Amino acid sequence: MVTYERFVEELITQGIDKTIVEKLVEEYRIVKREHLLGDDEKAVLHSAKVSDLILALIKSKVSGQVEDVNNLHFSKLLEDTLKYPKPSAADVILTLAIPRVAESVYTIRCKKDVAHVKTIDPSFIDSSYCVSACDWMLSELVLLFYKADVNEASELINSILTKKVPTIEEFEDGSVVILRKDLSLKQEFLLVLYHDYPKRTTNEDLIERLHYGNPKYAERILKELEGEKFVHRNNEGNKLTKNAIKYVEDEILTKKG
Known about the structure:
This protein has eleven helices and four strands. By secondary structure, the protein is mainly alpha-helical. Strands 1-2 form a two-stranded antiparallel ribbon. Strands 3-4 form a two-stranded antiparallel sheet. The longest helix is centred in the first third of the chain and has 24 residues, at 40-63.
């Protein structure tokens, strides 16, 4: 399976500037997070940053010229990219199709004044389009540079929502250890569910992975979390709500135990 780590390594191996690649993945993660949490304004803003970085990446790949990620000029990058030769279908995708999609995202960002005066709030439709555009552009880069198939590219895009939590250590048998000692059991449950997101986790799996020996009390805690609108529960298991994701990131992961 393609992973972001392998994808980044492959791009760097092909001579693309490491800083551009890593910044692109970082901004893309922010896009997906903000869209998930319903912040349309930030999703559009960071989608435009992804567009900037994708053009900088293409320029690095085709010409070998490295752009300063802190001083990117979209119009100039677009102009340069569109001028590159297009001898093959892959070149047409890389230096024409992807840049035109990036241009559409950047246009939405500018016309909506997202980064400036808040005269018009970006709508959910704007945000959804920009996120989908970023998904498509990144998928095409995976297909072109990593030589992955369509299914692998799709898996990589979907995996961006998989949480990697430094507070949790996961072992080969699937069990986990919470590395902080200051958390309540309720917070530990939230961390594991956050780690598993967007997959659902059954009560049994949650208890087994934490080696917790009181299933009745665990059920009580999960019911409390459901009542607090932190967990959605059904026959397939437990899944965090947007409220819980924000709580974990703002109140648990940002604070050291």
